[in-house]
Design goal:
This protein is of the alpha/beta class. It has a single domain, classed as Rossmann fold. 32% of the residues lie in helices and 25% in strands. The chain is built from 9 helices and 9 strands. The strands form 2 sheets. The protein has a 7-stranded mixed β-sheet, with helices on both faces. Strand 6 and strand 7 form a beta hairpin. The longest helix has 19 residues. The chain is globular. The structure holds S-adenosylmethionine (SAM). S-adenosylmethionine binds next to helix 1 and strand 2.
Length: 251
Amino acid sequence: MTKEIEKWWNEASKSYQESSQIETKSAHYGPYAPNENKYRMLGNVKGKRILEIGCGGGQCSIAFAKQGAKCTGLDLSSDQLKHAEDLAKKNKVSVKFQKHDIQSLGGFRSNYYDIVFSAFALQYIPDLTRCFKEIFRVLRKGGLFAFSFEHPFYSSISTVTFRVDKNYNKSEKIKEIETWPDGSKHTFVAYRRKVSEIFGSLLKAGFSIENIIEPFDRKSENAWRKGYWKKIYPKKLIEMIGPTIIFKARK
Ligand SMILES: C[S@@+](CC[C@H](N)C(=O)[O-])C[C@H]1O[C@@H](n2cnc3c(N)ncnc32)[C@H](O)[C@@H]1O
């Protein structure tokens, strides 16, 4: 499955980066969520060791590096990482980007990082508890784990009819063959789960959960109102249910 996810992200990287235009001033949490500079959930990151998992085009790691953090960004997709490397150069910051499957953090030191961060990447992980245990291992005692997902309630609702069209009670693997505007076919794989499962996996890994945030910030700076994204985040629907959920947990 990981091969299919890697392939999809290599194929999608260019259009994802062009259409989303994610900022590098502050780490973002996702569509219609305030960014980290507004939340200050992670405190002052200057001098902190941060591991970003599923870093994509590197914008969050770059934002942390601009604020003085020592950041490492991991991703499965070489195309996403190439974007990240180029963007870090453009922004004149140093981030260590590395191709790594975040299902396991083999090769990364235990009790080392102050913060593990992730935006919209953990929905591609089949065994969340195993992944969370690895994150717990690499964090120092008292270290923070902050991450966002697409809100599982949002994932259950049709963006066309605005009715519940997926079974929220049933966690499942999603596998869809997409046809893109140029006619090419692409296999998309991700995992849908309930809020309580995400919460439960954190507990099983040993974390204390400090906060769950369900934001809806119409004013947040992002590109999610334009083009392709308008279909995924239609105004009428996002005003009833925000598409992002954020968890803050501590070792
Ligand atoms: C929606 S993008 C989010 C990227 C970035 N955090 C952002 O906010 O733009 C999801 C990312 O997760 C990465 N990913 C998916 N499964 C992964 C895995 N098992 N190991 C590492 N990265 C993975 C993808 O390659 C993709 O770059």
